[in-house]
Write a structure and sequence with these properties.
heterodimer, A: alpha/beta, Rossmann fold, 3-stranded antiparallel beta sheet, disordered N terminus, B: 267 residues, ABC transporter involved in vitamin B12 uptake, BtuC
Chain lengths: 276, 267
Amino acid sequence: MSSIQEHPAQPPLVTVRGLSVSFGGRTVLEDIDLTVGAGEIVTLIGPNGAGKTTLVKSVLGLVKPSAGSIRLRPGLTVGYMPQRLQVERTLPLTVRRFLTLWRKVGRAELSQVLDEVGAAHVIDDAVQTLSGGELQRVLLARALLRRPDILVLDEPVQAVDVHGQIELFNLIAEIRRTRGCGVLLVSHDLHLVMARTDTVVCVNRHICCSGHPEDVSRHPEYLAMFGRHAEALAVYQHSHDHHHDCGGAVVTLPSAPQPLPDAQAREHPARHHHHG
Amino acid sequence: MIRALLGGCGIALVAGPLGSFVVWRRMAYFGDTLSHSALLGIALGYLLGIGMTVGVIAVCVAIAVLLVVLQEQRQLASDTLLGIVSHSTLSLGLVAIAFMETMRIDLLAYLFGDILSVTTTDIGWIYGGGAVALGVLAFIWRRLLAITVDEDLARVEGMPVIAIRLTFMLLIAAVIAIAMKIVGILLITSLLIVPAATARRFSSSPELMAVMASVIGVTAVVAGLFGSLFWDLPSGPSIVTSAALMFALSLMVPVFPLSRAPRPRAR
């Protein structure tokens, strides 16, 4: 996709062709094509039960496809961050121990990666006592310890409040920038990821549409899927026509990445509410 | 009595770390199922003339493999599956023993344990088998811990999840086979989980919890066997009662703080 054209010499990290998955006769995914280029952020988006997680798990080799092919670039290291982690309460496990469970990690490396994700202060806490945002950061640190070529993140911000969600997405975009790794991301909220993603793939059992986030947000299939009611459709269409303005709505937070300079854009969400 | 003490302590030492994993992995009912099937092993061991310990190990291993296979199919909920296998193997064992008129067996001794029945050969089994079991557990320790935390993560990291899970189940099967005579098949699971649950309150790391569970288990065995000797009690219930008492006492002790002193929250 876009970045492949930018780096024609680099083979794609992940190439999925004609993938179908079915569980017990029920087709969950049908004829999926997906490419993640080097250094590219690809976001999978779709409603609940659309097969986003199944697609990610197929790429990770956790789910067996019933047809099609999944090719990873030879020697590819994958850093996986699951949707959530439920550690049994009876298991006494600190963050330090959790992170060293998967491979030997030196002290310096450990504190460096925790600094990178902004979770240095929880290193001696029990994993069960972490807040949603802290846990996600620790899981991200775990994935980064592999020095991955590609990060695979399944709904990385689910148990996090809106403020924390934006911070996490910024962090992921920042990690991509500094480490140059590809990112395959699952989300159900296009607005949040829009500004920080290169390619959006809209999944609902099959691929509805894919491409640049702005194009996808105007695609009729996308609108049909997320704006079932006329009212909601109007809201969506409206906000997508002005997606930067909508970004402006969250930009009022100091940490957001691309603060919009013109005042009109900041006013816009308010007007938008009047209409909706 | 010396043999019983030696045997009981040996079992408690092995049961501590294994029992910790049974607690972490929520496998108490699985342990019950395996131990209930041990009675069938006794009957088969006698019938085939291969000896009871070998019979029990063989049946427990077969049941463990069967459960792994059935669980992979995901046709039935785990607890339903365990309930079916647990009670049908226990009943099969009782039926088989009832059919064998030539077999004179003290059923109560097998169900609840009997110190007097512990032979020198049994001690050999306990320490030999126990040492092997602990060695294997130490070998798979970190990976088993990782799988316990999250199986999908472990798979993505390239760990042989099924092989490790199966190995762990075989270890439990082996411990049940060697612990059967002292604690009795109906009570083995409690020797696995009660000391571990007690140790949880005083542990800040998985390893510490495993060691503490062994220490608590040994204490329960010693106390229980002396109770059994003085009041002529069946050894199994006596050991489990003292373990349960220690657990109850531990509830009154303030919990070891898992995280360090309260820190100011960020933000």
